[in-house]
């Protein structure tokens, strides 16, 4: 499992947390949103999911990944 922290802009509430974490779960990625630091910690299997797909999934929800 690979672990990374992504900087994400546009998150402000529990709805944002649920949206992002739910979308990541849908592609087999464990995600933990930290609203205070505007980050998302992700854990994933690189043989099944690529980091580009994770970023796209978050961006498709309306957030900007740095």
Q: What would your notes on this structure say?
A:
The structure is a single chain. With 66 residues, this protein is of the alpha+beta class. The protein has a four-stranded antiparallel sheet with strand order 2-3-1-4. The radius of gyration is 11 Å and the shape is globular.
The sequence of SSEs as H and E is: EHEEHE
Termini separation:
22 Å
Q: Helix coverage percent of residues?
A: 25-40%
Percent strand equals: 25-35%
Mean pLDDT score, rounded? 97
Number of β-strand runs: 4
Helix segment tally: 2
- Largest sheet features: 4 strands, antiparallel
Q: List low-pLDDT spans.
A: none
Shape: globular
Oligomer: single chain
Give the C-alpha Rg.
11 Å
Helix/strand structural class: alpha+beta
Instruction: Enumerate the strands of the largest sheet in spatial order, edge to edge or round the barrel.
Output: 2-3-1-4
């Amino acid at each position: 499992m690979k672990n990374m922290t992504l900087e994400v802009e546009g998150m402000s509430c529990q709805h944002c947390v649920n949206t992002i974490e739910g979308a990541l779960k849908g592609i087999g990625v464990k995600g933990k949103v930290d609203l205070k630091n505007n980050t998302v910690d992700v854990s994933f299997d690189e043989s099944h999911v690529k980091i580009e797909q994770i970023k796209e999934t978050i961006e498709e929800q309306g957030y900007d990944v740095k």
